[in-house]
Predict the structure.
Amino acid sequence: MPHRPPIDLLPLKDAARGLRAAAKRGVVALQETLPLADLPAPAIALADKALEQARVVGQMADRSLSDLAHSLLDDRGAVHLDDMERQAETRFCGMVYAALQEVLPRLEVDPAGISETAARAAWRKVQTEGAATDTQVAAQLLLALEEVKLMPHLSPSADPRLRPGLFAVLLAMLAQPEDPTPLLPAATDLALALGPDLSDAGQLNTGGADGLAALFEKYRHHV
């Protein structure tokens, strides 16, 4: 039998999430635009039924795709940023997604559209650079995640809240690789408190990744 290359399932998870978000937006848009109040009662009932069916179809498609991808990809081990193993890549991508889902709303940012495929591209880019310490890896990952369009609708230049969010996630991973989640609120508060220091740290004229690495090293034991 001819050899078939393995299927890349990470984009499948992104697609499932995108489908869910699109279905939700579509139903909300229809609810807002349809003149239901002006329709007779039988027409309102039909419209409500159609909206509910659209919502259910979106949920079913999302669940089927997402369950398959999760069953094959999810790995809930510790996330050590200087781990070169393939499993670490998968764990990192999943943790970035899950952590940003919690952190970004604290920054009043919509977390929709986070791409694990983009997170993987950032991870692989940094791993090829061979940073010496985990704090240097964290600094390079932050810059790489900003570059790869982790969230297509949100860029660091357009919204300065993305960097504090990424810093909080990576800081929590450094501080507690086995389970960063409980540290995310404190890490987010710390990232916000750093303010201009965090913004300036990644600039080339202040040492680029070195400035961020120094902040990670300084605060990893303070969350």
